[in-house]
Amino acid sequence: MHKHVGHDHLSGNRFQIVGLDPTANTVAIQYDPNAWMPDAEPHQQMTWTEFVSHLINGHFEIYRGT
Question: Among the residues of 22-66, which ranges form H helices?
Answer without folding.
Answer: 48-56
